[in-house]
Amino acid sequence: MRDNATDRGADHTRGRRHRRWRVSAALGLTAVLAGGGIAALQAAGSPASDAPEPAAVVASHSGRLTPGESREASRIAVDAATRPGTAPARGGEDAKKDTGGGERNAAGGSGAEPLDTRRPPRAKSASSAPDSRAEVQLYDYASDTLITRLVDLRSKKVLDSARQHGVQPPPTLAEAREAVKVVLADRRLGPGMRDSYTSQTGKRLTSPSQLRLQSMSFLGSRAKGVDGARKVSRCGEHRCVQLFVRLPGGKWIDTSRIVIDLSARRAAVIGL
Q1: Which residue ranges does the record annotate as region Disordered (predicted)?
Q2: pTM value?
Q3: How confident is the model at residue 95 (pLDDT cuts 50, 70, 90)?
Q4: Partner of 92 at 20 to 30 A CA spacing, among 22, 156, 194, 202?
């Protein structure tokens, strides 16, 4: 889920010292968490920031990859880390030489986390023959870097690779589910989420797959002037997300003031 609406709301508040947050009912979670001195409050919009924020650059591409091509491209890109000496970096001052090795995904497993696959841009003068190349974006949790790898589906090789720090594209469903696991493991927040789920559904919450999830990247600059901002100051350098959690029946569990730092595997509540 992209945060275009949030950015538009931020434009109306730019230049103000104090950020305004709208509070909504937490559908059971706030009451549970309040007993421990913590409440999750829904924000009408993220605080504005005068500082420039990292953003993913998305180029126009010709055609789409099939699901099978996307899976294969991701596999090639992830497996490239096991082979030393990948191609030189390209594109931009922040790009570094990609040497691979030791990459980790959101769950802490071997290999970077796949984020997106797409066709690379093609020159107008290029041949009309089918393009066997694919561009893969991954996030390496071991080094907190965004990786872009250009792979060839025919040769199964990486043609080019680059790394960038401080670039945070929208999180995937897999990352959102990892964020739920972090919340459930938190001794302050986990019981509240489980109790809220049970009170609304009559069932136990045992897996993130039971929830309908949307998420957005969170940057520490958005918390400027908000209570608890120091707890999320590394977000942007770290991979951090906010969750929007919907129950099977359509109701919501309010987690919008909970920021999950996936790089550090911890959750923080801000704006109280």
Answers
A1: 42-133
A2: 0.71
A3: very low
A4: 156
